[in-house]
Each structure stands twice: as C-alpha cells, then as structure tokens.
C-alpha cells in the first residue's frame, strides 16, 4: 500500500507536518480535508512513509462515535478565557519500520489560520514574532500543550515508544 500511494497524484495535497526530530510524544499534526479520515489515510501513509519507513501499525485515541473537537470554539474571546480548558484531542501514533510519530489530528472544519498555527506548533516549526501575539497562535499553543500532555499519558498507557533511531535527524517536513 505504501508504494502505490506515492505514485498517485493528489488533487488536494496531504496536509501533514512532522518535526525535525521525531522524539515524541507529539511529533506533528495532520489536517485532513474531510471528516472521512479512513478515505484520506492511504495518502497520509504515502506522505510520511519516506520518514517512518513501511507503516506497521496505527493507533488512535478516539471512537467513531465521538464527535471531533471544535478548535475554533476555543479561539473565541470570552470573559472566562483564563479558566477555560482544552478538551480531548484526537491523537494517533503511526509506527513504521524506521521510526514512529505521534500526530495531533486537526479537525477538517478548523479555520485555516488556526489549523496552520496548530500544525506549526505541533511540529516545532518557528512562529514569526508578528504571529506570536495573534489570538490564533495563543489558542494553538493551548491546544498543542494539552495535546502533548494527553499524548504522553496515552502513549505511556499503550507502552508505545516514540523515538527515532540514534543520530538520525530530518528537517521538518510539510507535505
């Protein structure tokens, strides 16, 4: 399956970003185009296989009965902003022959500005000083901090090692 997908040309590119070093537990983010994640999974696998190797396992932390989180609702200005909590995030771990990666799944209906901010922060890409004070980037920081904590706990419960082989380093990859 990994090879067949790589040769296919996509009408809509896969929106995924991975950190330079896959040191986990959260190594990047994936922003699918639709709510049909299963339909987009082959393209995701094709996009990240060069970094991870042949994909051997995928784990998710949600049920098909759960609704996806509304990240844009967190981006609204409220009087109680200081006490708000970021709810359960959709996370996945993808294990390959060479490495594994933990991804935050950004809901498809998330606004572009917030989704890009979440993806940049989840993968450790730099944030421009002009963007750092924007509400979307502050919200993205809250989302990613909560996702990192949730991801670490989830992976610990699963016993999932999220490490790249020693000495291997890759630039951040946006596909």
Textual characterization of the structure:
The protein has 175 residues and is of the alpha+beta class. The protein has a domain at 55-159. The protein is 37% helix and 15% strand. The protein is built from six helices and six strands, in the order H-E-E-H-E-H-E-E-H-H-H-E. The protein has a six-stranded mixed β-sheet. InterPro entries: DUF5994 (IPR046036). It holds the Pfam family DUF5994.
Largest sheet: 6 strands, mixed
Q: Give, in order, the helices and strands.
A: HEEHEHEEHHHE
Proportion in β-strands: 5-15%
* DSSP, total strands: 6
Strand order of the largest sheet: 3-4-5-2-1-6
Helix content: 25-40%
Shape descriptor reads: globular
Are there runs of 5+ residues with pLDDT below 50, and where? 164-173
Please tell me how large the radius of gyration is: 16 Å
Mean of the pLDDT scores? 81
Number of helices: 6
Structural class: alpha+beta
Cα distance spanning the termini: 18 Å
